[in-house]
Amino acid sequence: MPAMRWALDLVSRSLPSVEVRALSYWDALFDALDAAEEPRHGPMGHADRYESSIALALWAGELDILPGSVDGFTDGLPAWVQTSAGFHARTKAGGVGDPSGASEDEGRRYVELAAERLIRLVDEWT
Questions:
Q1: How many CB atoms are closer than 10 A to CB 99?
Q2: Distance (Å, rounded) from C-alpha 75 to C-alpha 59?
Q3: What gap in Å lies between CA 126 and CA 37, rounded to an integer?
């Protein structure tokens, strides 16, 4: 998201007559979940239930996601502190979310919801 915002700002400053729109499938997914009044599964975090479910749906049989294998930051800094170190340096296994409850079926539903919302939005623009 920060890179997207930076790119939009760069285009805005260098090409003020051009309007660019950026989309995040996460925002589309959460918008669709809210519209369907479906519950959220805690706060978003890398390798959480949402990401893990989507990964299971997209790469079925290729991943080994262990339910309840919460990693988290190990560097002693609060999660909201950004550093130049990536997840791999700040965590044991690269995740900061809770994958508990992740499933391939749930992931397929998330992908469908996000795709439908993005398609509907692009259709509204054209």
A1: 23
A2: 30
A3: 28
Task: Give the single-character DSSP code of 40.
Answer: P
C-alpha distance from residue 82 to each of 44, 64, 69, 73, 86 (Å): 15, 28, 23, 11, 9
Contacts of 77 by beta carbon, 8 Å cutoff, 6+ apart: 83, 90
Give 103-115 pLDDT, tens digit per residue: 999 999 999 999 9
Rounded Cα distance, 42 and 45, in Å:
9
- Short-list 113, 98, 100, CA closest to 25: 113
The two counts, helices (H) then strands (E), for the chain are 5, 0
Kindly state the tokens that stand for 34.
Answer: 């809210």
User: Which pair of structure tokens corresponds to residue 126?
Assistant: 């054209």
Q: Report the run of H or E that residue 30 belongs to, with start and end.
A: helix 25-35
Q: What's the whole-model pTM score? A: 0.76
pLDDT digits (tens, 9 = 90+) for 35-59: 999 888 876 777 888 998 999 999 9
